[in-house]
From TrEMBL:
Protein name, as recorded: HIT domain-containing protein
Motif placement: Histidine triad motif: 90-94
Domain of life according to the entry: Bacteria
Lineage, highest ranks first: Bacteria, Pseudomonadati, Pseudomonadota, Betaproteobacteria, Neisseriales
Species, as recorded: Eikenella halliae
Sections of the chain in a coiled coil: none
Matching InterPro entries: HIT-like, HIT-like_sf, HIT_Hint
Domain HIT: start-end pairs: 3-105
GO molecular function, one term: catalytic activity
Length: 143
């Protein structure tokens, strides 16, 4: 585990759900994109293909589970899924709820903003998503 890796350190995170191999956190450092989660593999690996097949399936199942829970709670116009790791080469997926009135829509949240806007979210959405993740329901039928 590299000392410089912020995803290995796991400091000051709002953990919504975790297993021995991964964790799902609410990302609170992007105010213009307030409905944002990250699924983080615990071991320091850079790419999906660094994992054995069963672990890749586990990672993607967690991404889909997070997407489904966010869709159910937030009712967004779209969910964006992304795995970059260019700046932090530690395997993680972004799960981002998008709304037609968010600051960037329809562009990426990393693009220049189009408007001053922060969508109104359901109160306690992070707790609600965490509860759905903990229930371990299948992703089918969550919306």
């Amino acid at each position: 585990m590299p000392a410089s890796c912020p995803l290995c350190r796991a400091e000051n995170e709002t953990v919504l759900w975790q297993t021995c191999r991964l964790r799902v956190i609410a990302v609170n450092d992007t105010p213009a994109a307030p409905a944002f989660c990250r699924v983080i593999w615990r071991d320091h690996v850079a790419e999906m293909t660094d994992l054995p097949a069963a672990a890749r399936q586990e990672m993607m199942a967690a991404v889909w589970r997070t997407e489904a829970a966010m869709r159910r709670v937030l009712r967004p116009a779209k969910i964006n899924l992304a795995s970059f790791g260019n700046q932090v080469p530690h395997l993680h997926w972004h799960v981002i709820a998008r709304f037609e009135n968010d600051a960037f829509f329809p562009d990426s949240i990393w693009a220049a903003s189009r408007r001053e806007a922060v969508p109104e979210l359901p109160e306690g959405w992070q707790r609600q998503v965490a509860e759905l993740l903990a229930k371990g329901e299948e992703t089918d039928g969550l919306v």
